[in-house]
Design a protein that fits this description.
Length: 242
């Protein structure tokens, strides 16, 4: 989509999948503050694309930061990722435990101070109860209130992507949180450029119809931020990815 832009006077900072790396998020926040310093802007907007929890060591710390703090002079939009959905599903129904544990939930439970041996993973009801008592109500309110998407100018922000050819109002939550192949391989124009995470690439994946910014921070140390202003795009990152 040629000539895509955000409204005049806006600068948007879209942050990819954090996955419990509070250290990288804190570093990227500092980079964003320095980047925005002195800029004459009407609006500074942070968009977090979801997957704040699981895999990395400090999921609880990431949620604690995001649920109470916006950078000075910025507004913040926090989107739901499939890993937040996984965590909430486990807190509501322990039968989803094995899937969550296998996809990084073990690290999240430990970040909330739930200690266990691996044999206890076969007793998800007990772990659900212990985690429920450890997660602060503010964290739960934050997680349960996360929207699935947001539009700013010519950009649609969503965690995983969209079902190509389907109007936004007909998109399923499952696709917005989980879709990969049908979306990633599509060359269709979506009406907006879709900014997403969910699928790891070594560098930001810039296509005519989408921009992927999940650079695997939990494993690589590279947390990526897309910066949009007027019709320009650039990137900030905590590692060596371009």
């Amino acid at each position: 989509m040629a000539g895509a832009s955000v409204p005049p006077g806006f600068r948007v900072y879209a942050i990819g999948d954090i996955h419990g790396r509070l250290d990288l998020l804190s570093r990227l926040h500092q980079m964003i503050l320095e980047d925005a310093q002195g800029a004459a802007l009407d609006a500074r907007i942070l968009v977090y694309l979801g997957d704040y929890v699981d895999r990395g060591p400090e999921s609880a710390g990431v949620i604690d930061l995001l649920s109470q703090q916006t950078l000075p002079g910025f507004s913040a939009i926090h989107l739901m990722g499939n890993h937040e959905d996984f965590m909430l599903r486990f807190l509501d129904d322990d039968s989803s435990g094995s899937g969550w544990f296998a996809n990084g939930g073990v690290a999240t439970m430990r970040s909330y101070g739930v200690d266990f041996d691996y044999g206890e993973l076969l007793e998800p009801d007990r772990l659900q109860d212990r985690l429920s008592r450890r997660v602060p109500s503010r964290h739960l309110e934050f997680l349960r209130g996360l929207p699935l998407s947001r539009v700013i100018g010519d950009y649609l922000f969503v965690h995983a992507g969209i079902r190509p050819g389907l109007a936004m109002e007909l998109q399923s939550p499952a696709d917005l949180l989980w879709i990969r192949g049908d979306f990633l391989n599509s060359v269709l124009e979506h009406g907006k450029i879709v900014v997403h995470g969910h699928t790891i690439t070594d560098h930001p994946d810039v296509r005519p119809n989408r921009i992927g910014i999940d650079t695997g921070a939990f494993a690589t140390g590279r947390l990526t931020c897309l910066v949009l202003e007027s019709d320009s795009r650039r990137f900030l990152h905590t590692g060596t990815a371009g």
